[in-house]
TrEMBL record:
Taxonomic path: Bacteria, Bacillati, Actinomycetota, Actinomycetes, Streptosporangiales
This protein's UniProt keywords: Signal
Signal peptide: 1-21
Keyword Signal on entry: yes
PANTHER family (UniProt xref): ABC TRANSPORTER SUBSTRATE-BINDING PROTEIN (PTHR30006:SF2), THIAMINE-BINDING PERIPLASMIC PROTEIN-RELATED (PTHR30006)
Coiled-coil features, chain-numbered ranges: none
Name under which the protein is recorded: ABC transporter substrate-binding protein
Pfam families: SBP_bac_8
Keyword match Signal: yes
Length: 390
C-alpha cells in the first residue's frame, strides 16, 4: 500500500479556462457550457456508408487509441480482427492522456488518433473548445444514442463502489451507511485512490455537492436520529471532511485496493472504494469481494467514459471507424465485461457485478450537465481534501 499525492497540471490549467463561467447553487446541476463559449456541436456526416469508411480507413494504415483501462487492448484486438486494420490500444491515466494530446496538438505532431476519456470536465472545458479533440457521432447509430449522450459522445458508463471481503464478512457488508465510514472504528480501514490524482473521484465530490446533499442529510438522519449540523457549505463537504480526516489508506491504483480488500490472505476487514472492473479478480485470482449492497444512500457512483477523436489525427477515417465500433455491442463488450452500461441504448448490460443488481437505483449518478462545474470547482475540493487529510 502506498500513499500518493499527485498534482495534475493540466486540470489546473483548464481551471483557468473555465474560471469565468458563472457559479451555480449547491443543489442545482451545473451548466455544461458557459454562455460565452458554448460547446461546439458534434460532427455528424449527412450519410454514412460504412463500407466506404472501412475502405478509406484501410488506406490510412493503423491507429492509436488511449484509454484509462487496460481493456483497450482487448478492444484493439477485436477491432483488428474485424477490419484487418492494425490498432494499438494504450492504457494511460486520464490526466496524462489529456496533457499528451494537448502537447501533440500544439506541436502539430499527433500520434493519438482517439481517446476513451473519463474526465468529462477537461474534455468539455478544454480539449473540445480549444480544438484539441472533437466529437463525431455515427449517423447510422444516432437514433440509438440518447440526445444527452451525444455531445460529448458517451461510449459507456462505469462505476466505483464500496466493496468488502465476503469471506471475512459472510453476513454481508459490515457498513450500512456512508456515514459509518466517518466513525473512529473505521479509521484507516477505507482504501481508495488518492482523489488528488483521480479526476473521477474529485468529480464525484463536486457532483455530490451539486445534487447529492439531500440524500446525504437523509442518510445522516437515519443513522444518528437527528439532523446534520455543519459549519461547512453543505452535507457533501461535511462528509468529505470527515472521510478525509478518518485516515483512509490512499493508493495509486484500483488493483492495490482490490488486493487490500479481497485477497485470499486478507485478515483485516477493510472497505475498498474501487472500480467494479476489479471484480474480475474474484475469478482470475480467487479474491472474495462484492459491492456493499443496501448501503445508504448509495453503494457508489457511476461515471461516464467518453470517446473523442484528435482534431489533427493523421488517420481520421480509422478514428471514425473506431468510434463506430466502440458504440456497438461488438466493440464495447470488452469495456463492460465486468459491468457497465453502453451509451448506445440498444446495447444491453452483459454482466451484473456482485452486489450491484440495480444500476439505476443503487448508484449516485454523474449529471452530464455538471461537467464544466466539476472542472470549475475541482481546485476548491482538492484543497479541501488536502487540508483535512493532512
Amino acid at each position: 500500500m502506498r500513499r500518493t499525492r499527485k498534482i495534475v497540471p493540466l486540470a489546473l490549467l483548464a481551471l483557468a479556462v473555465a474560471a469565468c463561467a458563472p457559479s451555480t447553487g449547491p443543489d442545482a446541476p451545473s451548466s455544461a457550457t458557459s454562455a460565452e463559449q458554448p460547446l461546439p456541436g458534434p460532427s455528424i456526416d449527412a450519410s454514412l456508408d460504412l463500407d466506404a469508411l472501412v475502405a478509406a480507413a484501410k488506406k490510412e494504415g493503423g491507429l492509436l487509441v488511449y484509454d484509462s483501462s487496460g481493456d483497450i487492448e482487448e478492444v484493439a484486438k477485436a477491432f483488428t480482427a474485424k477490419y484487418g486494420i492494425p490498432m494499438e490500444g494504450v492504457k494511460s491515466d486520464t490526466p496524462q492522456t489529456a496533457e499528451k494530446m494537448t502537447r501533440e496538438h500544439a506541436a502539430g505532431n499527433v500520434t493519438i488518433d482517439a481517446a476513451m476519456y473519463e474526465d468529462g470536465g477537461v474534455l468539455v472545458g478544454q480539449l473540445i473548445p480549444q480544438g484539441v479533440a472533437r466529437t463525431w457521432v455515427p449517423a447510422d447509430l444516432k437514433d440509438q444514442i440518447p440526445a444527452e449522450n451525444q455531445n460529448p459522445l458517451l461510449a459507456l458508463s462505469k462505476a466505483t463502489v464500496f466493496a468488502y471481503n465476503t469471506k471475512l464478512s459472510p453476513g454481508g457488508c459490515p457498513i450500512k451507511n456512508v456515514w459509518d465510514l466517518t466513525e473512529p472504528e473505521w479509521a484507516g480501514k477505507l482504501v481508495m485512490q488518492d482523489p488528488l490524482g483521480k479526476p473521477t473521484v474529485l468529480s464525484f465530490f463536486t457532483q455530490l455537492d451539486a445534487h447529492g446533499n439531500q440524500a446525504l442529510e437523509q442518510a445522516y438522519q437515519a443513522k444518528y436520529g437527528k439532523p446534520l449540523q455543519t459549519q461547512e457549505k453543505s452535507a457533501a463537504y461535511e462528509w468529505v471532511k470527515r472521510i478525509s480526516a478518518n485516515k483512509p489508506v490512499l493508493t495509486g491504483s484500483d488493483e492495490d485496493i482490490s488486493a487490500a480488500v479481497g485477497a485470499p490472505n486478507a485478515t483485516d476487514k477493510k472497505i475498498g472504494f474501487m472500480s467494479i472492473s476489479k471484480f474480475r479478480n474474484n475469478e482470475d485470482k480467487g479474491y472474495a469481494q462484492a459491492t456493499c449492497e443496501g448501503m445508504a444512500p448509495f453503494v457508489g457512483f457511476s461515471y461516464p467514459k467518453y470517446v473523442a477523436i484528435a482534431a489533427k489525427s493523421k488517420h481520421p477515417n480509422a478514428a471514425k471507424l473506431y468510434v463506430h465500433f466502440i458504440m456497438t455491442e461488438e466493440g464495447v463488450k470488452h469495456e463492460i465485461g465486468e459491468g457497465g452500461v453502453s451509451g448506445n441504448s440498444t446495447v444491453k448490460p452483459l454482466v451484473t457485478p456482485a452486489g450491484l443488481s440495480d444500476w439505476k437505483g443503487q448508484l449516485f449518478h454523474t449529471d452530464p450537465a455538471g461537467l464544466l462545474g466539476d472542472l470549475r470547482n475541482r481546485q476548491t475540493v482538492s484543497d479541501f481534501w488536502r487540508v483535512n487529510h493532512g
